């Protein structure tokens, strides 16, 4: 009886081996493209990042403020200048009117007692915050504390108007954001 079981098992094993051998197909080599796909992905990725890096280095000058370290050290002087401006007690009004790309500026300057300040040197700086090199400087002409000027700007958009008035040893500054359409 033991021999018979042994025989039956060996027959089953042989049949299974024969079935496996007959049904086993030779391995297909369909996966040969996978390494090339991985390589292509990384080549495209590196090319794309290299392009972004090239654009970044070509368009960004890397410096927002020239001599920023020296200006940082002079910060206390800027605070002292603001304190001196406040102590002088000068009062001002600023009015702007835009007509397309043309800007008219009217600036009144008075002392602490309300008297008009004549003979001041007033300069208007129109600064384009998004593009360096297109700033406009206008000296304003004054009479009895009213200073006027106009400028034609090259582009619409946001401009920063910075006024600087000097009379004797006193200085006055004011700024305003303009949006031209």
How would you characterize this protein structure?
With 181 residues, the protein is an alpha+beta fold. It has a domain at 90-180: Immunoglobulin-like. It is built from 4 helices and 7 strands. The protein has helices spanning 2-23, 34-59, 68-73, 75-88; strands at residues 91-99, 102-110, 121-127, 136-143, 146-152, 157-167, 170-180. It has a 7-stranded antiparallel β-sheet with strand order 1-2-5-4-3-6-7. The N and C termini lie far apart (105 Å).
Instruction: Sum up the overall morphology in one term.
Output: rod-shaped
Name the poorly predicted regions: none
Indicate the CATH architecture of the domain at 90-180: Sandwich
> For the terminal residues, how far apart are their CA atoms?
105 Å
Mean pLDDT: 84
Number of helices: 4
Rg calculated over all Cα atoms: 40 Å
Number of strands: 7
Q: How much helical structure, as a percent, in the residues?
A: 25-40%
Order the strands across the largest sheet as they lie in space.
1-2-5-4-3-6-7
Topology:
Blueprint: H1 2-23, H2 34-59, H3 68-73, H4 75-88, E1 91-99, E2 102-110, E3 121-127, E4 136-143, E5 146-152, E6 157-167, E7 170-180
Antiparallel strand pairs: 1-2, 2-5, 3-4, 3-6, 4-5, 6-7
Task: Give a quick rundown of the structure.
With 181 residues, the protein is α+β, with helices and mostly antiparallel strands.
